[in-house]
Amino acid sequence: MIGSFLMSMLMYCVLLLPFYLLARFLLMKRKKITFGREAIMLLFFCYCVSIFSQTIIPDFWIGNGQLKFATIHFASSNFIPFSTIHNYIEQLQGPIAQIAFYNLAGNIVLFIPFGFFIPLLWQKFRSIGAMLIISFCIPLFIEGTQYFIGRSSDIDDVLLNAIAIFLGYGFYLLVNFIKIKRKRL
After folding, report:
1. Would strands 66-69 and 60-63 be described as parallel, antiparallel, or unpaired?
2. Staple 135 to which of 38, 59, 63, 162, CB 3.0 to 4.6 Å?
3. Residue 94 in contact with residue 100, Cβ under 8 Å?
């Protein structure tokens, strides 16, 4: 299950990498380039492509020379906060324990890097207020897009993703604090 997600993510990253490199080359033509920052930007790009490939971009494959899209068999929406979280927590010992665990853990673990990379790469997003806004805007964008393209949409995903992004920001602050302390020694 996880292997197919990883292969899909990798495929999108490989397909979009030339476009990213061209765009970065054109944008950075006259600017000073640092290898470390560019490496982090590339990693962040691949991370974003991976997340969006699994949350927004529809599944597709090529068969008989035609591009075919996967049909969505079950799309639902939940606008009641904590409803899905509560249901999944109840199922952690039930017959769908693995699905419940992957949903809860995935919605948290997969979004932590947003909270780390964004303030690391862009100084204007290093304040708590800016990261609080970002921590809700990214998941709201994803879930809102899913709603309008006919995929499942859940307010609990927004909450879990926002918490995860803020946890990533906390990790950024911790790393930055340690870095500052080491410089002073």
Report:
1. antiparallel
2. 162
3. yes
